[in-house]
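Recap quiz, item 2
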Amino acid sequence: MSPAERRTPPHEVVRGTLDLLILKALSLEAMHGWAISQRLEQLSDEALQVGQGSLYPALQRLEEKGWIDSEWRSTDQNRRAKYYELTPAGRRALGAESEQWRRYVEMVDLILRTT
Amino acid sequence: MGWTKRWKKRLRALVHKDAVERELDEELAFHLEMATREKLRAGMTAEEARRQARIEFGGVERFKEEVRDARGLAWVSGMSLDFRLGARMLVKYPGLTLVGTLAITFAIWIGIGTFEFLSQVVFPTLPFEQGGRVVAIRSWDAERSRMRAAGLHDFAAWRGELRSVRELGAYRAVERNLITGDGRGEPIGVAEITASGFGVTRVPALLGRTLTAEDEAPGAPPVVVIGHDVWQRRFAGDPGMLGRTVLLGRQRATVVGVMPEGFGFPVAQNVWTPLRLDPLGYARGEEPRVEVFGRLAPGVSLDEAQAELAALGRRTSADFAATHRHLRPRVMPYARSVLSLPLGLSVGILSLNGFVIILLVLVCGNVALLMFARAATREGEIVVRSALGASRRRIVAQMFAEALVLSALAGVAGLAAASFGLRWAMDSLIAELMDGARLPFWFHSSLSPASIVYAIVLTVLAALIAGVVPALKMTGTGLQGRLRESGAGGGGLRFGGLWTAVIVTQVAVTVVFPLITYFVQKDARQIEAQKDGFAAGQYLAARLEMDREPPDPAGDTTRAAYLARIEDTRARLERRLLEEPTVAGVTFASNIPRRYHGWNQIEMDGGAVVPLDTARGHRVGAAHIAPDYFEVLGRRVLSGRGFYSSDVESGARVVIVNERFVDVVLGGKNPVGRRVRYVAGEGAASEEKERPWYEIVGVAPDLGMTSGYGVGGLYHPVPADGLHADYLVVGVRGEPEEFAPALQRLAAGVDPTLRLHDILPLDEVEASELEFYAFWIRITALLTLVVLVLSWAGIYAVMSFTVSRRTREIGIRVAMGADARRVVFAIFRRPLTQVALGVTAGAAVILLLRTGLSDPGHGPSADEVAALIGYAAVMFAVCLLACVVPTRRALGVEVTEALRVE
């Protein structure tokens, strides 16, 4: 498997799971968009490189759902940036979505093993 | 995040759009800056770092668009932009705006007008305070399975006992001669009504007072309340109206009140007198019938009232089994007692709206065609937008918004036209259809809120068809693939089979409608040109009626006595008229020339008639005439004899036939001495033995037994009892119209209860029918114009579209030296075929209609066929005209230009 293939999972899978990954990334602390993208790369050991731009529509969607909230703050370098944080509803959603994802993976895995 | 905060953010994105956009820019810029810094740290050059950061980020504009789409109220701001764009499109494409708006306006106008009228028919609302609680009580006759008015005794009983219905009243609709100071009598609808009739409506008098309970007392001075219409028309709105006296037939009464305009309770009456009927004066079962009405008591439902009434009814049925065992009183909403529609019929009437919606769909389908052609010229724009991340929904929404701007304009115009059109329809059309009768008072010509909602629904429906259908087709399949095609200057979009069908149908309709109009016009001309067969301009005719009640209240009320009284009055009127120097002659008949004389099937004794080409047998008109009928009309019997007074007195079964009868039924052979009888139609009885034979004694000239071409007909002598002699015909020296007021005066002088209806000169009998024709012609002409403009614009749009699609091909072909004619033919083969198909289909429909609907022997004539062919040719040429501009443009294409398109 070439590095390029390893690093670009099928687009649809990313789109479906991106929301979940963002919620996970935000579960520890509030972050701005750039930090989230860095975090996702880091968490996946650079195996997963999301088209960085697609992060922002996803953030907007999550905010619209009420799962995250946003606010303009100063960074450590004293730059203005938009920070996102999980809302209580978002935390609940993260739990439910993770559970669902695990079950889905187990199911697919089971099928792949037995057939 | 609470929902309030979320809504605040949504609204902020909508209201402070610029600030939110700046924040989005800042956020993305921050991301790119951070990414660039990271690359710099990794040792890239500044330019390389920026480039790499951008590549990893992806298309900035595309993601911005996606973020905007993900905002909660994105569609609102999107739509407002779309609406502004739509408004700009209106100005940019004035042709489409004009044609589209006109067409949709027309459809919405017809739609609302129809909806409003049908709703008023099916869901009548009384224009009174709490009009929905006004009810009527009638009796269901279980033996005959029909509703009937209640007897006077029932009314008295209900008035005494019913608790759930208050203000119980009753009326009897009668017709009376209204005779004013000038002595002229005019038949007018009168309601003999209880005083509560006014209370129940809650409408006060405009002048004076309404009727009171005291007015109903037997000895009370006779009073009358008149309507606004009568007040204006007969008394010129005299402010001193109260206290004046009028004659209602034989009854002199004092005017005590004038009702406001539009008040016509109980149905469409304009004069009200007290109902003075004493139940004690009649035996049960023989009393006069009255219509009963009232108001539901406060808090009582219709069902509760019905329960109380039913209990009362059961008791009456038991107490008076002889007259009431089969009668079940029913309470119902008031309007339904006047205009009672079974459920099936109501649904049927409402479903007429469906036809109008089909019209709207057809019209909007056309506008969709135009919108599609326009959208096709903007295909590049749409493909690029889609590539930039606009979703299909977004593009469809944009085209919907554009169409909605157009249809909203049409909706407003349609509403305005409908409120005008409804007044016009109520006034002229209904009056024409109902032969001068008035609609019940609750019909009104203003638009109800429901109609306005309906107009909005139609407007949105129109926009959906005209905007969304083309948009879906545009964005449907392989939009990506078309990016290449449109870039290459080739034709990506095609007009499919649906559009072909639309165009063909359209052209067919433009052929059919004007030709129908032409044929209708021709029939009208024929009626107009029809010779009267006598000097019709010198005669005045009127239909006679007389009050049934004898002059002396204690007099003979039998039918025989009534007929004798009519006969006597008729004779006195004739004598009185003949004393006038301007009167040349007077006669009576059951019908007058040029009116419809019925359509009775007959058979001849011994057969031997002209063979028939239909199984229905010969059908002829029939009339009863006084013996001097032909003589007064200035004509004489052509062969055989006329009627003698002895025919009338002896009741001899003799008839006179007209010339047309001799031609059609007997092939011109001498009919005198032959026998004829009715088989079916108004003149026929169902029993074989009750179909008597009539001996033909003479042949009369054709005087017209319908408005148009001659039909055969039979004349019977009026019977001795004067039955059937409904029409009075007066020969006048001078202008017949000028004699009309004198006739009204003379008739009222002979007997104030003798009513003259439909007074008109005999040469204007067919005028009302001609007016109807003219009305029909106006409607079809308007419809034709709309369809013609639509199809013309459609063909033009499709042609322009085709040419612009094939500019390159045409240019190269012409440059290579191809024959211009062949190029033109190659391009226009398809539209030519469509127009040809449409014209042929239309012509076929016309021929079928003309052949199928006409009576035998009246199929399309040679000149009609010529008109058809000529018109088809003209239509063909007109449709081709729509191709001229695009063709010239195509042939003018320069090679360089054609290649540049690439």
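Chain A touches chain B through 25 residues (CB under 8 Å).
Chain A has one domain: 3-114.
End of item.
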